[in-house]
Design goal:
Belongs to the BROX family. InterPro entries: BRO1_dom (IPR004328), BRO1_sf (IPR038499), BROX (IPR038898). This is BRO1 domain-containing protein. This protein is an all-alpha fold. It has a domain of 90 residues. The chain is 62% helix and 2% strand. The protein has a two-stranded antiparallel ribbon. The chain starts with 26 loop residues before the first helix and ends in a 38-residue tail after the last helix.
Length: 379
């Protein structure tokens, strides 16, 4: 079972018309700026759900893609190379006063999917404005990673391999954001900024996607009948990934405006995989004739999870189901120990062995694409 957290993909943006801001020197540049605006408008309409075209036309325009997530990915993959090309050309003359003025007139505005202030804004979605093309690139890439993650969940029931690959690709996008995009945006950031432009938040999202990828890998391993010892290590590897993500979130000063749902999701996911890891670990202890220790491991795990449940009701519902199964497993072990093994059950949690973690999921590096087209401006 996996918990669903689709908040990162709930980004909205306002219209940008590039050719109305940047003065083109020739007709070729003007046409390319219009194409950029056109691709941007397709993206705006797909994420803002403001398109006037029907589903059949949307499918035809995206080459027959039926899934909304696929259509958004298609629009993103058309827009990003053009945006990268514009940024490259603007950077060449970015110190020119005319280029600085034009860029400021773009009024690049995005909502935040992860900001706590956005959730409590009574007038509707709160838009953050930062007049820098890398802010546009940052939010577009964040959306790309988030939609890749949604698509991975969408294909999960039917194709475990593709799902794991998409999660790893999403992890690569967020890793690229954290290390190659956001650091170059810092000098332009105002005090009030969305979590999406904070490097540590993208690092957190990358770790979440790796944890998702490993969870899918475990599903495949379970189907193949992998040993309980390895399954325990793989689940505990996810616990370690989520611990690392929670640590980043807790120590990042720039993430103070982040919705509590992010931390609650990390905690809920960690508990879910803790239950699985300790269930399999108890089996390995039984196999090595440590039945009393196995009972203690199950007992303490159940107690710790029950007292730390947080987050959305849908997450709690999944956890409660796992807790019920875990409780029944513990009851059977206690009964068997009482009537068959008669082993002493340790009463100190600190004396209990812990499973090792094995992290096998790795990112698929994101390779930016840039359509190398010459742009000439009147400066």
């Amino acid at each position: 079972m996996m918990l669903h957290f689709n908040d990162p993909a709930k980004l909205k943006t306002k219209k940008i018309v590039f050719e109305e801001v940047y003065a083109a020197r020739d007709s070729a540049t003007l046409e390319q700026l219009k194409e950029l605006s056109s691709k941007r408008r397709m993206l705006e309409e797909s994420i803002n759900e403001s398109s006037s075209i029907n589903g059949a036309i949307a499918r035809e325009m995206s080459g027959g893609l039926t899934s909304r997530n696929q259509q958004v990915l298609h629009n993103l993959e058309l827009y990003l190379p053009l945006l990268e090309n514009l940024i490259w050309h603007v950077d060449r003359v970015k110190s020119h006063h005319q280029m600085v003025r034009w860029t400021s007139e773009l009024k690049i505005q995005w909502t935040s999917a992860l900001s706590s202030s956005s959730f409590f804004n009574l007038k509707g979605s709160k838009y953050f404005q930062i007049n820098n093309l890398r802010f546009e690139l940052c939010l577009t890439l964040f959306l790309y990673g988030a939609i890749l993650r949604e698509r991975a969940l969408e294909v999960l029931p039917s194709d475990l391999v593709q799902s794991a690959t998409l999660f790893r690709e999403a992890a690569g996008v967020f890793h690229h954001l954290a290390h190659q995009v956001i650091p170059f945006l810092q000098h332009s950031l105002v005090w009030e900024r969305p979590p999406e432009v904070v490097s540590s938040m993208s690092a957190v999202m990358s770790l979440i996607c790796l944890a998702d990828a490993q969870a899918v890998t475990i599903k495949k391993a379970e189907e193949k009948g992998t040993t309980v010892g390895l399954l325990a290590k793989l689940h505990h590897g996810i616990v370690e990934l989520l611990d690392e993500a929670a640590g980043l979130l807790h120590t990042a000063k720039e993430c103070k405006d982040t919705s509590s749902d992010v931390a609650d999701f990390l905690s809920s996911c960690k508990m879910l995989h803790e239950l699985q890891a300790q269930k399999y670990f108890a089996e390995t202890l039984k196999s090595s004739n440590q039945f009393g220790v196995a009972v203690a491991v199950l007992r303490f795990t159940l107690t710790n999870v029950k007292k730390n449940m947080l987050g959305k009701e849908s997450w709690k519902s999944v956890l409660k189901e796992e807790i019920d199964n875990f409780s029944e497993l513990l009851r059977k072990h206690e009964h068997e120990n009482e009537f068959v093994w008669h082993e002493k059950v340790p009463s100190e949690e600190t004396l209990l062995p812990k499973p090792e973690g094995n992290k096998i999921a790795n990112i698929i590096p994101y390779q930016p694409k840039k359509w190398e087209r010459q742009l000439a401006f009147k400066i």
